[in-house]
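F.,

This is the one I mentioned.
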């Protein structure tokens, strides 16, 4: 018996299934088999049974195709066992363990045929496949590209053959006998029907008919050659199965009752091909089959047609559609797939007791139960349904007027309340649909039937004679709402706040809402996985809400990461275009499966990545890998992964080594620089596991580097991946779920290959078929002989990796409800009921999913048949089912706005149709409208005729305006930012003055009243969705910035001019002034190097002392090794060269001693990542040495012109450039050493003394350096440019030297104690220093120098607690301007043009330096204060006290 139980609620169908599960007729130890359309529904059903029955043992949910194959296999296996014991002429038909006409098996056979016969096909333009392959394969494509194209063609053909197996078996029967399908007749029949309903429609063009004809010939050729035998074998299996079931063969000893289940249940169906229905109908003669069918409507709707199509036909072809009806707009437009399924089931009616087939229909449409389940959370009784419940009820009864009338009723009530507030001039802006008693002061006199009575049979029978119903409203209805946003992130942010409110709404006593009641559907959840997880985070979110969520229906992130880690051993290095860049490699190393399998933690691998970056890794694996992209004579691979790992490993093993060649013992060519390794610093024994793991990774990459281009058979590749990578490097993850998923994909790949072996046996059976010609048998045999070896086809690794990844993507992924908020793809959770259904990203371009433009599908050539499946119909049906399966609310989000434009963007077609449906033709009966008309008529003393005309005109005007009002009420447009001003409710009341000033109510001002009322209603709706606290804080912060004439609260209080005057007095105390009230600085030790860092940029030092960290823009990632020396790198090289010379000066009294030690730091530079790559590596170092030598020559000449004798006997021999440079520079560099001194400073601490440490020059006495005696002259060469801040360093070093040597007045007179420093390049900061690189400072008496030094120490101490806008460059500029003005006998007034580099960054530079007020550091300090005012407050007071002595003493040479 075939029983169909239909209901509009999945819960009722579950109850029916549960009753059968608990039935006494169900054997205890027999499987309870349930056929489901998706594993998602199967898992949900299993859990539902377990939760309601307490246990779900022996419940088996499976697909129909799998169960059908298993059932035939079981019956034929028993019959074959019996047949072997009996003498019979019948052949034994074996059923393979797996179906041999699956998509993957057909795909491999097609690919093998294309590959083996590619040359033969391309050589014969008469071959049926020539038109297809000639368009795909060109002479320029290499072998790998051709493989990819052929695999794609095989994929498309396997898909269409799979569709034909379900929907066009008649074609396959013809092709199996090598008979053609009449394509031209199919096209002609389609054109005939099209023209019959639309005489203006054109016929199918001839070129398209020719394409379909060629396609039919190609598909017939492939099917007959590759699949006909196995298809006939499958048909023979089904025939034998029915013979056994019907008793046509001698099987009296077979107990069919023991093989067949006692009952078979089918839980909902989403598609029903005709061949499946026929099989079920025939099977129901032998076992009881119960189909639990989800039917959204109680009435018969199998014959309804698309409303839009019907309306068009009523205009252009009215005589052919006068008996047609569309039933319900949404059902006719969106439920086409369900309609076809219902129609196929309905076609079974009337066949009761026909040839043993029995059919029973049971309806379980409980309207009262539907109403009780659909109560809104705030309703007090069942007399008021939500808008969503009205919609579901109307679909159930095929009556769309109720929903439209309910929509208009809610809008009219909302606007009526707002207009009542306007007309009454009320000052309270309350929610128009709140539960306040004031909302329902006036009750309707006529008592309308309750909702239950409206849907009773008596009322429905006479519903066309009833007047429009008056819906009772009690609160804001948010059961069905549409939201327009700017992007998906904004949708998710809004959704969080709405969910928080929905979960906390008061509901019926005894009920409680849960996170598991919420489902969020997206068209493509996989693509937005990361964004969803970033908004719906684990734990508490930034809005303070804890909303755990799980994304289902997609490949788990852990599986993808594991496969990416495995395939990275091949793909990162093996591809021909692989650059092995640091960003890509470091991201791969940071994959959790990789570092966890290596025994490391996230922090340890992060440390390893930092070490690789520190070692200079930019791109390239090793020298051999870089040779593919470099010149043959370029052996520089300092920026490769291998070289960086060498430095790391050597830093662990030989941390004290300087330059080592132990890793490069080979004999190098004479013209090639021998590579050496410089161990990196900061390697500890704790880094040993990290280094070991990186070495293992290097070994794995090196072992697999050439396999990417190799070719092996598929099974060999799978074994190599498993043995060489998985077991070696991921053995610790063998038993994890992600690894099992990967093994399942690989095993599925192997099973698809092994399934081809069955075809050889089926071909052998076909040889005995007398209906097949001998030539066909010979051709098929030749092809089969080759295709039997398809598993040995040599393939590239890239092809295998992509195929395994596709297999992973195609695996059946869990998508069942998760117990928390469930995110899923449309259609994956179909027919599963939820309390709240949310649809995100419902854009026109995203939904519904259009059918793939498979130009190889012949089904498009002819008429569609009942049961055909289309992607667009699937998605439209999923949208309708989601709408109908929402129990409390359904929220729809789409991107109706963009940040890049201002025009409106349309939602998806189903959403637009829902809006159009709700905006349908409604007779708007509205009390505020009647009151306004009555008031207008009385005030103007109109007669009855004028009153009727006026009322009709006003009613018509409002009726035209109603659709817009409904759309505005349903659709909420959200701003782009969560802290925008529109989000927050202000205390201002909408102005009603314009409405109350005049008593006249005309059409125009009445429309204005409606517009203001709608604005007020939308304002009230916002009150129900308060933004998160964090966004309120941001909004309040932004608002606070505009208070007090747009003045922002000051974070840092800058000193005033008076404050600067006090600071100036404190840094230079007057001995005549009473200092008893001065504060003590409480400082005992000073380091001159640190003092310089404090005073060169006082504001930076202030922020550091206040523990304020300024986030600066991140530097761009380096993807290319440096090919030239940048300014910063040039400074680094010069500093290292000069540092080596300083070391040699301090360690050697004689220039020519230990020249190897002098050359060592210079040679070390050749292996430093700072040097450019390639040829410039050595030439750049030579060039920098030449520049220093030239600077020394110029310095020597300058000193000679001053009467200072230096050694000038040198030559510029290129072979000994490093030694010569040392000889020159050593005579111009005074050796230095650190020295600690103690000086008296009464105001520094209670002890009255302070210790100061700094560098002082040493004197050469008897060819030995002596710290006891101070030299008369301090010569120095610096790598810096002559910028003001570096001149300040020169000044402070000179002052400290004068204090340390206690310079006397006599020494000052004798010019004993001069400092002459040479800088690398001149500066353009000051005109007087333009082109100057050498500066001199005269000796300073001890008392004067000590006072100067203590002044800077005091200033540094004050700068740590007081922000000051004074910088050395602008102080010197100010002093120069003042001096120029004094010479002209005028007073200088600072001008903005004099300090333009402070106000604006350079026009020719993208960089903003910290000496500019636009820098992030100064932006934090200044906020919105004027930078020029802040600068000019400090300069007049502090410039002279601080920099006056320096500016006077500094002499350029």
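My design for it:
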């Amino acid at each position: 018996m075939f029983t169909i139980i239909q209901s509009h609620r999945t819960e009722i169908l579950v109850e029916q299934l549960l009753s059968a599960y608990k039935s006494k007729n169900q054997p205890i130890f027999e499987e309870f088999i349930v056929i489901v359309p998706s594993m998602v529904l199967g898992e949900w059903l299993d859990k539902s049974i377990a939760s309601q029955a307490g246990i779900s043992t022996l419940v088996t949910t499976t697909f129909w195709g799998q169960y059908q194959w298993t059932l035939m296999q079981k019956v034929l296996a028993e019959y074959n066992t019996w047949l072997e014991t009996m003498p019979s002429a019948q052949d034994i038909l074996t059923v393979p363990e797996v179906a041999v006409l699956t998509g993957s098996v057909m795909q491999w056979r097609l690919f093998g045929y294309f590959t083996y016969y590619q040359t033969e096909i391309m050589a014969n333009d008469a071959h049926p496949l020539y038109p297809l392959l000639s368009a795909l394969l060109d002479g320029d494509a290499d072998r790998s590209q051709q493989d990819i194209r052929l695999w794609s063609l095989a994929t498309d053909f396997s898909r269409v053959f799979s569709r034909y197996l379900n929907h066009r078996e008649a074609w396959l029967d013809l092709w199996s006998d090598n008979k053609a399908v009449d394509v031209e007749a199919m096209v002609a029949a389609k054109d005939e029907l099209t023209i019959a309903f639309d005489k203006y429609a054109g016929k199918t063009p001839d070129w398209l008919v020719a394409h379909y004809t060629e396609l039919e010939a190609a598909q017939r050729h492939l099917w007959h050659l590759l699949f006909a035998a196995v298809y006939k074998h499958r048909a023979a299996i089904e025939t034998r199965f029915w013979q056994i079931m019907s008793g046509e063969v001698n099987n009296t000893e077979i107990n069919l009752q023991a093989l067949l289940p006692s009952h078979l249940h089918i839980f909902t169906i989403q598609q029903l091909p005709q061949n499946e229905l026929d099989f079920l109908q025939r099977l129901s003669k032998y076992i009881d089959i119960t189909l639990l069918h989800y039917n959204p409507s109680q009435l018969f709707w199998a014959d309804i047609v698309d409303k839009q199509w019907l309306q068009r036909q009523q205009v252009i072809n009215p005589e052919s559609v006068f008996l047609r009806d569309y039933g319900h707009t949404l059902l006719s437009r969106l439920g086409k797939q369900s309609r076809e399924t219902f129609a196929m089931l309905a076609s079974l009616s009337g066949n009761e007791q026909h040839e043993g087939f029995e059919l029973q229909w049971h309806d379980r449409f409980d309207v009262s139960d539907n109403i009780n389940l659909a109560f809104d959370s705030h309703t007090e009784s069942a007399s008021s349904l939500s808008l969503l419940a009205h919609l579901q009820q109307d679909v159930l009864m095929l009556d769309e007027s109720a929903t439209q009338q309910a929509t208009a009723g809610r809008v009219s009530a909302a606007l009526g309340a707002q207009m009542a507030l306007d007309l009454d001039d009320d000052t309270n802006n309350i929610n128009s649909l709140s539960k306040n008693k004031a909302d329902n002061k006036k009750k309707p006199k006529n008592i309308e039937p309750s909702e239950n009575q409206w849907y009773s049979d008596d009322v429905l029978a006479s519903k066309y004679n009833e007047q429009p119903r008056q819906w009772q409203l009690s609160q804001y209805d948010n059961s069905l709402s549409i939201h327009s946003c700017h992007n998906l992130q904004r949708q998710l942010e809004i959704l969080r706040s709405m969910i928080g409110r929905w979960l906390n709404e008061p509901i019926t006593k005894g009920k409680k809402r849960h996170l598991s009641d919420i489902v969020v559907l997206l068209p493509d959840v996989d693509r937005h996985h990361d964004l969803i997880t970033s908004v719906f985070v684990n734990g508490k979110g930034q809005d303070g809400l804890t909303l755990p969520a799980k994304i289902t229906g997609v490949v788990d992130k852990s599986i993808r990461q594991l496969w990416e880690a495995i395939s990275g051993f091949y793909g990162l290095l093996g591809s021909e275009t692989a650059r092995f860049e640091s960003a890509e490699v470091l991201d791969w190393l940071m994959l959790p499966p990789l570092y966890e399998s290596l025994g490391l933690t996230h922090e340890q691998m992060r440390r390893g990545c930092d070490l690789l970056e520190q070692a200079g890794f930019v791109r390239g694996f090793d020298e051999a890998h870089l040779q593919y992209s470099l010149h043959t004579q370029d052996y520089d691979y300092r920026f490769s992964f291998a070289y960086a790992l060498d430095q790391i490993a050597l830093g662990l093993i030989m941390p004290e080594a300087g330059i080592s060649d132990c890793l490069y013992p080979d004999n190098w060519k004479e013209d090639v620089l021998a590579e050496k390794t410089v161990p990196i610093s900061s390697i500890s024994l704790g880094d040993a596991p990290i280094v070991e793991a990186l070495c293992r990774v290097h070994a794995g990459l090196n072992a697999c580097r050439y396999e990417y281009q190799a070719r092996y058979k598929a099974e060999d590749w799978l074994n190599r991946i498993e043995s060489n990578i998985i077991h070696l490097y991921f053995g610790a993850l063998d038993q994890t779920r992600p690894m099992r998923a990967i093994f399942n994909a690989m095993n599925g790949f192997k099973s698809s290959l092994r399934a081809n072996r069955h075809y050889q046996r089926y071909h052998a059976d076909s040889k005995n078929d007398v209906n097949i010609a001998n030539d066909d048998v010979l051709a098929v045999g030749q092809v089969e002989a080759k295709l039997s070896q398809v598993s040995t086809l040599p393939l590239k690794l890239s092809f295998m990796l992509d195929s395994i990844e596709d297999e992973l993507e195609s695996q059946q992924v869990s998508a069942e409800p998760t117990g928390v908020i469930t995110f899923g793809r449309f259609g994956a959770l179909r027919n599963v009921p939820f309390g709240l259904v949310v649809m995100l990203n419902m854009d026109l371009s995203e939904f519904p999913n259009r059918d793939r433009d498979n130009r190889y599908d012949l089904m498009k050539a002819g008429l569609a048949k009942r049961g055909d499946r289309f992607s667009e119909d699937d998605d439209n049906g999923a949208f309708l089912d989601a709408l109908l399966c929402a129990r409390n609310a359904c929220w729809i989000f789409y991107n109706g706005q963009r940040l890049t434009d201002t025009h409106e963007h349309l939602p998806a077609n189903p959403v637009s149709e829902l809006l159009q449906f709700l905006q349908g033709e409604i007779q708007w009966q509205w009390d505020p409208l009647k009151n306004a008309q009555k008031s207008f008529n009385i005030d103007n003393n109109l007669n009855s005729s004028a009153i009727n005309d006026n009322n009709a005109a006003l009613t018509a005007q409002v009726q035209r305006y109603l659709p817009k009002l409904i759309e505005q009420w349903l659709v909420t447009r959200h701003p782009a930012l969560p802290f925008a001003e529109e989000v927050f409710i202000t205390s201002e009341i909408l102005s009603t003055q314009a409405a109350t000033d005049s008593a006249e109510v005309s059409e125009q001002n009445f429309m204005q009243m409606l517009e203001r009322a709608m604005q007020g209603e939308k304002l009230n709706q916002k009150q129900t969705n308060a933004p998160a606290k964090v966004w309120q804080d941001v909004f309040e912060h932004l608002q606070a910035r505009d208070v007090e004439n747009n003045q922002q609260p000051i974070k840092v209080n800058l000193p005033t001019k008076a404050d600067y005057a006090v600071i100036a007095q404190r840094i230079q105390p007057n001995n005549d002034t009473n200092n008893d009230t001065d504060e003590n600085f409480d400082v005992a030790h000073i380091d001159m190097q640190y003092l310089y860092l404090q005073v060169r940029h006082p504001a930076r030092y202030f922020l550091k002392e206040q523990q304020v960290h300024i986030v600066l823009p991140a530097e761009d990632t380096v993807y290319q090794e440096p090919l030239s020396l940048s300014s910063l790198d040039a400074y680094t090289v010069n500093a290292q060269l000069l540092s080596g010379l300083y070391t040699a000066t301090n360690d050697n009294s004689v220039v020519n001693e230990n020249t190897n030690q002098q050359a060592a730091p210079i040679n070390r530079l050749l292996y430093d990542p700072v040097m450019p790559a390639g040829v410039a590596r050595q030439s750049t170092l030579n060039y920098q040495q030449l520049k220093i030598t030239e600077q020394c020559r110029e310095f020597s000449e300058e000193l000679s012109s001053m009467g200072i004798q230096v050694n000038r006997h040198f030559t510029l021999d290129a072979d000994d450039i490093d030694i010569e440079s040392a000889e020159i520079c050593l005579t111009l560099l005074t050796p230095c050493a650190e020295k600690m001194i103690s000086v008296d400073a009464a105001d520094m601490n209670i002890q009255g003394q302070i210790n100061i440490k700094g560098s002082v020059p040493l004197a050469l006495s008897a060819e030995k350096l002596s710290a006891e005696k101070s030299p008369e002259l301090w010569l120095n060469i610096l790598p810096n440019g002559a910028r003001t801040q570096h001149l300040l360093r020169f000044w402070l070093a000179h002052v400290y030297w004068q204090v340390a040597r206690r310079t006397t007045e006599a020494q000052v007179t004798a010019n004993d104690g001069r400092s002459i420093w040479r800088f690398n390049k001149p500066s353009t900061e000051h005109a007087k220093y333009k082109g100057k690189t050498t500066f001199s400072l005269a000796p300073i008496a001890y008392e004067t120098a000590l006072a100067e030094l203590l002044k800077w120490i005091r200033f540094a101490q004050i700068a740590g607690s007081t922000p000051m806008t004074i910088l050395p460059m602008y102080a010197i500029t100010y002093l120069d301007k003042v001096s120029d003005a004094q010479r002209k006998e005028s007073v200088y007034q600072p001008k903005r043009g004099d300090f333009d580099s402070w106000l604006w960054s350079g026009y020719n530079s993208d960089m903003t330096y910290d000496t500019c007020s636009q820098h992030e550091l100064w932006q934090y300090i200044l906020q919105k204060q004027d930078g020029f005012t802040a600068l000019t407050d400090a300069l007049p007071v502090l410039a002279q006290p601080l920099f006056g002595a320096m500016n006077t003493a500094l002499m350029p040479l």
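Residues 155 and 1419 are 59 Å apart (CA to CA).

Talk soon.
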